[in-house]
Amino acid sequence: MALKDNIFLILGLGWLIVITLASLVPFEMVPHVGSSFRHTDKIVHCIFHLVNTTVFYLHFRKSGIPKILLKIAIGSFLYGMIIEALQYAMPYGRGFELKDMLANLTGILLASFLIKFILGASRA
User: N or C: which end of the chain has fewer CB within 10 A?
Assistant: First the structure.
């Protein structure tokens, strides 16, 4: 397969690395972004999973796999759950937050909406 055939897969795997590193490194290593909006981290969670779902859909959309969007959405949600469980288990001062899971789900649902209604996915 040519690189152009796998560009979305490469982007998706790179994005998973970004999410993992941003979610699991100690707080001291994460640069503080000054924001007066108190839910900035929830927006970041939403964006992480919106992009994740979209990029993997763009890679697998022509694969012929039935209900591929649903499978990708479930995979993204499970990935978010694993990250939250790891945050709970690691001694870095991070913890499990139900609101993070809801933000992840919001991003997944927004991506699904965009894919279904904006991109016009027929077999998603």
Answer: N
CB crowding 63-77: b at 16 or more within 10 Å, else e: eeeeebbeebbeebb
* Cβ partners under 8 Å of residue 15, min gap 6: 48, 51, 52, 55
Task: Tell me if 110 sits within 8 A of 57, measured CB to CB.
Answer: no
What is the per-residue pLDDT across 65-115, written as a single tens digit (0 to 9) for each?
999 999 999 999 999 999 999 888 887 777 788 899 999 999 999 999 999
pTM: 0.83
Beta-carbon contacts of 47 under 8 Å, excluding residues fewer than 6 positions away, are: 107
Q: How far apart are CA 34 and CA 19, in angstroms?
A: 20
Spell out the domain ranges in the chain: 3-20+37-118
Residue type, 111: A
Mean pLDDT of all residues in 25-49: 73
